[in-house]
Sequence to fold (286 residues):
Amino acid sequence: MTTPISYYLILSGIVFLTGIVGVLIRRNIIAILLSVELMLNATNINFVAFSDYFRDLGGQVFVFFALTVAAAEVAVGLAIIIALHRSRSTINIEEFNLLKW
Amino acid sequence: MSHLFFGYFASMIIATSILVVALKNPVYSALSLLVMFFHVAGLFVTLHAEFLAAVQIIVYAGAILVLYLFVVMILNVKQDDRYHNQWRAAGFVCAPLLIEAMVLLSGGAKARMTGTQAVPGPSAESLAPDNTLAIGQTLFSTYLFPFEVASLVLLVAMIGAIVLAKREIGEPDNPNPMLRTKAAE
Fold:
């Protein structure tokens, strides 16, 4: 008796939606980056669930690459946050309107 | 039994991911994200991806989360700011996505009942018993070129992070011009 694949899809959909809501409603840049991590994890759950379903290791290898990209994204994102905090002394997203039209 | 494990991991993952978004203090958000990473790793174990579960804990919980916590503590922000006024945008994005997911999943269930399956079912042969060995063989044969590209991505991210975060030589601690002129006076 195995868990049906649709349960995993619903789970990862809920986690992904939580991430989207977090990106849209939080004002702290660090919380926004944490929400991006939530979205990446939701896709990872999908990849591994389908890898188990189709008995194909390609999904797990792609989770590996997603992890690499997540690590790179976190390093660059946190460096940008530190640079922003140094120039503006805040990490509230509403204080940054340089690229706003 | 597998339903029981899935129910526990799924409910904990959903609860902690909602906590990540809802909690006010970024440190608490990061810590509940840590709990979520551990439960995702547990879910990977139930899906026969033991190597990925270990990598998930080592890389996500061990490296990425520590980086987050370091930055939160370095910046030492006051937590007076919370949500901003994009509830309507969030609703407009999420409600159609949620409805779409429901429609797709219910349609998939109906198709399975009538026997017209769009995707092939699980194949008969099982995954290799040695997960790490199998992943290594796949990674270094089929996905060798993406693997090398991933190393390039990591190199670029490392250099980029250093360039972005470093302070120029001679640059003062607080570059706020008001404070600097005050100090000069």
In short: Chain B touches chain A through 85 residues (CB under 8 Å). Residues 143-185 of chain B form one domain.
